[in-house]
Amino acid sequence: MTKKKILLTRVFPEVATNLLEQAEFVVTKWDKERPMTQEELIANAQGHDALFCTLTDKIDAQFFGACSTIEMVSQFAVGYDNIAVAEATRLGIPVGFTPDAVSEPTADIAFGLMIVTARKMFYLHKTIEKGEWGYFKPNSDLGLTLKNKTLGIFGLGRIGIETARLCKGAYNMDIIYHNRTPNKQAEEELGATYVDFKTLVSQSDVVSVHCGLTPKTKELFNKEVFNQMKSTAIFINTARGLIHNEIDLIDALQKGTIWGAGLDVTNPEPMQTNNPLLQMKNVCVLPHVGSGTIDARDEMSRMAAVNIIEYYKNKRVPHIVNPEVLNAI
Fold it and tell me: Would you call 269 a catalytic residue per the annotation?
Protein backbone atom coordinates (compact mmCIF):
# COMPACT_ATOMS: atom_id res chain seq x y z
CA MET A 1 0.00 0.00 0.00
CA THR A 2 1.31 3.45 -0.94
CA LYS A 3 2.26 5.52 2.08
CA LYS A 4 0.34 8.75 2.61
CA LYS A 5 2.30 11.97 2.11
CA ILE A 6 1.97 14.80 4.65
CA LEU A 7 3.15 18.38 4.10
CA LEU A 8 4.17 20.39 7.17
CA THR A 9 3.96 24.05 6.21
CA ARG A 10 6.25 25.47 8.91
CA VAL A 11 9.06 24.43 11.25
CA PHE A 12 6.84 22.80 13.88
CA PRO A 13 7.95 21.08 17.11
CA GLU A 14 9.53 17.73 16.35
CA VAL A 15 6.76 15.91 18.23
CA ALA A 16 4.65 15.98 15.05
CA THR A 17 7.35 14.68 12.73
CA ASN A 18 8.25 11.87 15.12
CA LEU A 19 4.65 10.70 15.51
CA LEU A 20 3.89 10.85 11.80
CA GLU A 21 7.06 9.04 10.80
CA GLN A 22 6.51 6.37 13.46
CA ALA A 23 3.06 5.87 11.92
CA GLU A 24 4.81 5.35 8.56
CA PHE A 25 3.69 8.52 6.81
CA VAL A 26 6.00 10.25 4.35
CA VAL A 27 6.66 13.67 5.83
CA THR A 28 7.66 16.71 3.78
CA LYS A 29 8.77 19.71 5.83
CA TRP A 30 9.03 23.36 4.78
CA ASP A 31 12.36 24.13 6.45
CA LYS A 32 12.36 27.93 6.32
CA GLU A 33 11.27 30.06 9.27
CA ARG A 34 9.17 32.33 7.06
CA PRO A 35 5.71 31.29 5.86
CA MET A 36 5.27 30.13 2.29
CA THR A 37 3.76 32.47 -0.22
CA GLN A 38 0.42 31.30 -1.60
CA GLU A 39 2.15 30.21 -4.79
CA GLU A 40 4.73 28.22 -2.82
CA LEU A 41 2.05 26.64 -0.65
CA ILE A 42 0.05 25.43 -3.64
CA ALA A 43 3.15 24.19 -5.46
CA ASN A 44 4.44 22.27 -2.44
CA ALA A 45 1.06 20.82 -1.45
CA GLN A 46 0.38 19.27 -4.83
CA GLY A 47 0.81 15.52 -4.73
CA HIS A 48 0.37 15.35 -0.95
CA ASP A 49 -2.51 13.64 0.81
CA ALA A 50 -2.78 15.74 3.98
CA LEU A 51 -1.79 19.20 5.09
CA PHE A 52 -0.39 20.09 8.52
CA CYS A 53 -0.79 23.88 8.55
CA THR A 54 -1.24 26.97 10.70
CA LEU A 55 -2.92 30.38 10.69
CA THR A 56 -0.50 32.02 8.26
CA ASP A 57 -1.50 29.55 5.53
CA LYS A 58 -4.39 30.54 3.27
CA ILE A 59 -6.35 27.38 2.65
CA ASP A 60 -9.06 28.76 0.39
CA ALA A 61 -11.12 27.56 -2.58
CA GLN A 62 -8.22 28.34 -4.92
CA PHE A 63 -5.95 26.12 -2.84
CA PHE A 64 -8.39 23.21 -2.83
CA GLY A 65 -8.97 23.60 -6.55
CA ALA A 66 -5.25 23.46 -7.31
CA CYS A 67 -4.44 20.72 -4.78
CA SER A 68 -6.95 18.03 -5.62
CA THR A 69 -5.01 15.25 -3.86
CA ILE A 70 -5.51 16.82 -0.41
CA GLU A 71 -7.81 14.56 1.62
CA MET A 72 -7.40 16.04 5.08
CA VAL A 73 -6.28 19.30 6.75
CA SER A 74 -4.94 19.45 10.30
CA GLN A 75 -4.50 22.94 11.73
CA PHE A 76 -1.83 23.75 14.31
CA ALA A 77 -4.06 26.30 16.07
CA VAL A 78 -7.34 26.73 17.89
CA GLY A 79 -8.61 29.18 15.26
CA TYR A 80 -9.29 28.27 11.64
CA ASP A 81 -10.48 31.45 9.94
CA ASN A 82 -7.66 30.97 7.39
CA ILE A 83 -9.41 27.85 6.08
CA ALA A 84 -12.40 27.80 3.75
CA VAL A 85 -14.21 25.28 5.94
CA ALA A 86 -17.40 25.35 3.88
CA GLU A 87 -15.43 24.46 0.75
CA ALA A 88 -13.55 21.72 2.58
CA THR A 89 -16.85 20.30 3.80
CA ARG A 90 -18.32 20.41 0.30
CA LEU A 91 -15.33 18.43 -0.92
CA GLY A 92 -15.58 15.92 1.93
CA ILE A 93 -12.30 17.06 3.50
CA PRO A 94 -12.16 16.92 7.32
CA VAL A 95 -10.50 19.86 9.07
CA GLY A 96 -8.79 19.16 12.40
CA PHE A 97 -7.60 21.72 14.94
CA THR A 98 -5.99 21.87 18.42
CA PRO A 99 -8.42 23.63 20.79
CA ASP A 100 -7.56 22.44 24.30
CA ALA A 101 -3.79 22.90 24.17
CA VAL A 102 -3.87 26.70 24.06
CA SER A 103 -6.50 27.47 26.71
CA GLU A 104 -4.32 27.91 29.78
CA PRO A 105 -1.35 29.70 28.15
CA THR A 106 -3.61 32.12 26.29
CA ALA A 107 -5.57 32.81 29.48
CA ASP A 108 -2.25 33.54 31.19
CA ILE A 109 -1.50 36.15 28.53
CA ALA A 110 -4.94 37.76 28.89
CA PHE A 111 -4.58 37.85 32.67
CA GLY A 112 -1.04 39.20 32.42
CA LEU A 113 -2.09 41.92 29.98
CA MET A 114 -4.75 43.09 32.41
CA ILE A 115 -2.16 43.49 35.16
CA VAL A 116 0.59 45.14 33.12
CA THR A 117 -1.89 47.49 31.46
CA ALA A 118 -3.58 48.46 34.73
CA ARG A 119 -0.19 49.30 36.24
CA LYS A 120 1.43 50.79 33.09
CA MET A 121 4.31 48.33 33.38
CA PHE A 122 5.53 48.46 29.77
CA TYR A 123 5.61 52.26 29.80
CA LEU A 124 7.31 52.48 33.19
CA HIS A 125 9.98 50.01 32.08
CA LYS A 126 10.71 52.31 29.14
CA THR A 127 11.20 55.29 31.49
CA ILE A 128 14.06 53.43 33.16
CA GLU A 129 15.70 52.73 29.81
CA LYS A 130 15.40 56.43 28.99
CA GLY A 131 17.01 57.48 32.29
CA GLU A 132 13.77 59.03 33.52
CA TRP A 133 13.56 57.23 36.88
CA GLY A 134 13.74 60.26 39.10
CA TYR A 135 12.41 61.16 42.52
CA PHE A 136 9.19 59.87 44.07
CA LYS A 137 6.02 61.67 42.90
CA PRO A 138 2.91 60.70 44.91
CA ASN A 139 0.51 61.56 42.07
CA SER A 140 2.57 60.37 39.11
CA ASP A 141 1.93 57.35 36.85
CA LEU A 142 -0.90 55.94 38.92
CA GLY A 143 -2.58 52.76 37.76
CA LEU A 144 -5.86 51.00 38.39
CA THR A 145 -6.84 48.37 40.95
CA LEU A 146 -8.33 45.15 39.61
CA LYS A 147 -9.55 43.65 42.89
CA ASN A 148 -13.36 43.41 43.17
CA LYS A 149 -13.85 44.95 39.73
CA THR A 150 -16.12 43.59 36.98
CA LEU A 151 -14.65 41.44 34.22
CA GLY A 152 -16.67 41.20 31.03
CA ILE A 153 -15.83 38.18 28.87
CA PHE A 154 -16.90 38.25 25.23
CA GLY A 155 -16.81 34.59 24.22
CA LEU A 156 -16.84 32.44 27.35
CA GLY A 157 -15.46 29.24 25.85
CA ARG A 158 -12.36 27.27 26.83
CA ILE A 159 -9.98 30.24 26.98
CA GLY A 160 -12.56 32.65 28.35
CA ILE A 161 -13.43 30.43 31.28
CA GLU A 162 -9.73 29.88 32.13
CA THR A 163 -9.27 33.67 32.12
CA ALA A 164 -12.31 34.11 34.33
CA ARG A 165 -10.95 31.54 36.80
CA LEU A 166 -7.69 33.45 37.12
CA CYS A 167 -9.43 36.78 37.64
CA LYS A 168 -11.91 35.37 40.13
CA GLY A 169 -9.24 33.58 42.13
CA ALA A 170 -6.65 36.37 42.21
CA TYR A 171 -8.83 39.49 42.38
CA ASN A 172 -12.33 38.30 43.30
CA MET A 173 -13.63 39.94 40.15
CA ASP A 174 -17.33 39.72 39.31
CA ILE A 175 -17.76 37.86 36.01
CA ILE A 176 -20.28 38.88 33.39
CA TYR A 177 -20.23 37.45 29.88
CA HIS A 178 -21.87 37.44 26.49
CA ASN A 179 -22.04 34.31 24.32
CA ARG A 180 -24.22 32.97 21.57
CA THR A 181 -25.58 30.62 24.27
CA PRO A 182 -25.31 30.69 28.08
CA ASN A 183 -22.42 28.81 29.72
CA LYS A 184 -24.02 26.99 32.64
CA GLN A 185 -20.69 25.58 33.80
CA ALA A 186 -19.26 29.06 34.31
CA GLU A 187 -22.41 30.26 36.01
CA GLU A 188 -22.28 27.42 38.52
CA GLU A 189 -18.52 27.46 39.10
CA LEU A 190 -17.77 31.17 39.03
CA GLY A 191 -21.12 32.84 39.61
CA ALA A 192 -20.84 34.30 36.11
CA THR A 193 -23.84 36.25 34.83
CA TYR A 194 -25.04 36.16 31.23
CA VAL A 195 -25.78 39.66 29.87
CA ASP A 196 -26.52 41.19 26.49
CA PHE A 197 -23.68 42.75 24.54
CA LYS A 198 -24.59 46.36 25.37
CA THR A 199 -24.64 45.57 29.10
CA LEU A 200 -21.32 43.77 28.82
CA VAL A 201 -19.45 46.71 27.31
CA SER A 202 -21.12 49.36 29.46
CA GLN A 203 -20.74 47.68 32.86
CA SER A 204 -17.32 46.02 32.60
CA ASP A 205 -14.15 47.46 34.12
CA VAL A 206 -12.20 45.06 31.91
CA VAL A 207 -13.55 43.74 28.61
CA SER A 208 -11.66 40.62 27.50
CA VAL A 209 -12.25 39.22 24.00
CA HIS A 210 -12.12 35.44 23.48
CA CYS A 211 -14.49 34.84 20.57
CA GLY A 212 -13.76 33.46 17.13
CA LEU A 213 -13.34 35.67 14.07
CA THR A 214 -16.50 35.57 11.96
CA PRO A 215 -18.23 38.05 9.66
CA LYS A 216 -20.33 39.11 12.67
CA THR A 217 -17.34 39.71 14.97
CA LYS A 218 -15.04 41.34 12.41
CA GLU A 219 -14.25 44.84 13.74
CA LEU A 220 -17.15 44.52 16.16
CA PHE A 221 -15.19 46.54 18.69
CA ASN A 222 -15.26 49.89 16.94
CA LYS A 223 -15.93 53.53 17.74
CA GLU A 224 -19.58 52.92 18.55
CA VAL A 225 -18.72 50.17 21.03
CA PHE A 226 -15.78 52.00 22.63
CA ASN A 227 -18.08 54.98 23.20
CA GLN A 228 -20.34 52.71 25.27
CA MET A 229 -17.52 51.57 27.56
CA LYS A 230 -16.51 53.15 30.86
CA SER A 231 -13.86 55.84 30.65
CA THR A 232 -11.93 53.77 33.23
CA ALA A 233 -12.26 50.51 31.25
CA ILE A 234 -9.45 48.34 29.92
CA PHE A 235 -9.87 46.53 26.58
CA ILE A 236 -8.09 43.17 26.23
CA ASN A 237 -7.88 41.22 22.97
CA THR A 238 -6.07 37.86 22.79
CA ALA A 239 -8.38 36.36 20.14
CA ARG A 240 -7.95 37.89 16.67
CA GLY A 241 -6.80 41.39 15.75
CA LEU A 242 -9.53 41.81 13.16
CA ILE A 243 -12.14 41.74 15.93
CA HIS A 244 -11.23 45.32 16.83
CA ASN A 245 -10.94 48.35 14.58
CA GLU A 246 -7.46 49.58 15.40
CA ILE A 247 -7.94 53.13 14.14
CA ASP A 248 -11.02 53.47 16.34
CA LEU A 249 -9.15 51.93 19.28
CA ILE A 250 -6.28 54.40 18.91
CA ASP A 251 -8.77 57.27 18.77
CA ALA A 252 -10.63 56.02 21.86
CA LEU A 253 -7.40 55.81 23.84
CA GLN A 254 -6.10 59.19 22.69
CA LYS A 255 -9.38 60.89 23.63
CA GLY A 256 -9.72 59.08 26.96
CA THR A 257 -12.91 57.35 25.87
CA ILE A 258 -11.45 54.21 27.48
CA TRP A 259 -8.55 54.00 29.93
CA GLY A 260 -6.23 51.39 28.43
CA ALA A 261 -5.70 48.37 26.22
CA GLY A 262 -3.74 45.12 26.32
CA LEU A 263 -3.29 43.36 22.98
CA ASP A 264 -1.76 40.06 21.98
CA VAL A 265 -3.28 40.47 18.53
CA THR A 266 -3.36 43.51 16.29
CA ASN A 267 -5.09 44.77 13.16
CA PRO A 268 -3.13 44.27 10.96
CA GLU A 269 -0.41 41.82 11.95
CA PRO A 270 2.43 42.32 12.29
CA MET A 271 2.07 45.80 13.79
CA GLN A 272 4.13 48.60 12.25
CA THR A 273 6.87 49.99 14.50
CA ASN A 274 5.45 53.53 14.25
CA ASN A 275 1.99 52.52 15.51
CA PRO A 276 0.85 55.09 18.15
CA LEU A 277 -0.28 52.28 20.45
CA LEU A 278 3.35 51.40 21.15
CA GLN A 279 4.01 54.81 22.71
CA MET A 280 0.89 55.10 24.89
CA LYS A 281 1.26 54.89 28.67
CA ASN A 282 -1.80 52.72 29.18
CA VAL A 283 -1.22 50.23 26.36
CA CYS A 284 0.68 46.95 26.31
CA VAL A 285 1.17 45.02 23.06
CA LEU A 286 2.57 41.52 22.50
CA PRO A 287 3.35 39.83 19.14
CA HIS A 288 0.60 37.16 19.15
CA VAL A 289 2.25 34.78 21.61
CA GLY A 290 -0.82 33.45 23.44
CA SER A 291 0.11 29.80 22.93
CA GLY A 292 3.82 30.46 23.30
CA THR A 293 4.97 27.96 25.90
CA ILE A 294 7.04 24.85 25.25
CA ASP A 295 4.36 22.60 26.71
CA ALA A 296 1.53 24.18 24.71
CA ARG A 297 3.32 24.13 21.36
CA ASP A 298 4.41 20.51 21.87
CA GLU A 299 0.83 19.54 22.73
CA MET A 300 -0.52 21.41 19.70
CA SER A 301 1.98 19.55 17.55
CA ARG A 302 0.95 16.21 19.06
CA MET A 303 -2.77 16.90 18.66
CA ALA A 304 -2.45 18.00 15.04
CA ALA A 305 -0.42 14.89 14.21
CA VAL A 306 -2.86 12.59 16.00
CA ASN A 307 -5.73 14.13 14.04
CA ILE A 308 -4.04 12.94 10.84
CA ILE A 309 -3.01 9.55 12.19
CA GLU A 310 -6.47 8.75 13.53
CA TYR A 311 -8.16 9.85 10.33
CA TYR A 312 -6.17 7.45 8.19
CA LYS A 313 -6.16 4.67 10.76
CA ASN A 314 -9.74 4.78 12.06
CA LYS A 315 -11.60 7.37 9.94
CA ARG A 316 -12.00 9.61 12.98
CA VAL A 317 -10.53 13.00 13.90
CA PRO A 318 -10.33 13.59 17.67
CA HIS A 319 -10.60 17.37 17.30
CA ILE A 320 -12.57 18.30 14.21
CA VAL A 321 -14.13 21.51 12.90
CA ASN A 322 -16.59 19.89 10.47
CA PRO A 323 -17.72 16.54 11.94
CA GLU A 324 -20.48 16.21 9.36
CA VAL A 325 -17.79 15.12 6.90
CA LEU A 326 -17.01 12.03 8.98
CA ASN A 327 -20.68 11.30 9.48
CA ALA A 328 -21.03 11.01 5.71
CA ILE A 329 -18.26 8.42 5.35
Answer: yes
- Residue 316 annotated among the catalytic residues of the structure: no
Report, at the CATH architecture level, how domain 5-101+294-327 is classified.
3-Layer(aba) Sandwich (3.40)
Burial-class residue 188 by CB neighbours within 10 Å (0-12, 13-18, 19+). Answer: exposed
Q: Which CATH superfamily is domain 102-285 in?
A: NAD(P)-binding Rossmann-like Domain (3.40.50.720)
Query: In this structure, are residues 3 and 23 in contact, taking their beta carbons and an 8 Å threshold?
Result: no
Given the residues 288, 297, 299, 319, the one annotated as active site: 288
Q: What is the pLDDT of residues 214-244, one digit of tens each?
A: 999 999 999 999 999 999 999 999 999 999 9
Active-site residue, selected from the candidate residues 10, 119, 240, 297: 240
Q: Is 180 a catalytic residue?
A: no
pLDDT in tens, 64-95: 999 999 999 999 999 999 999 999 999 999 99
Query: 194 and 221 in contact (C-beta within 8 Å)?
Result: no
Which of 21, 24, 269, 324 is catalytic? The answer is 269
Domain limits, the chain: 5-101+294-327, 102-285
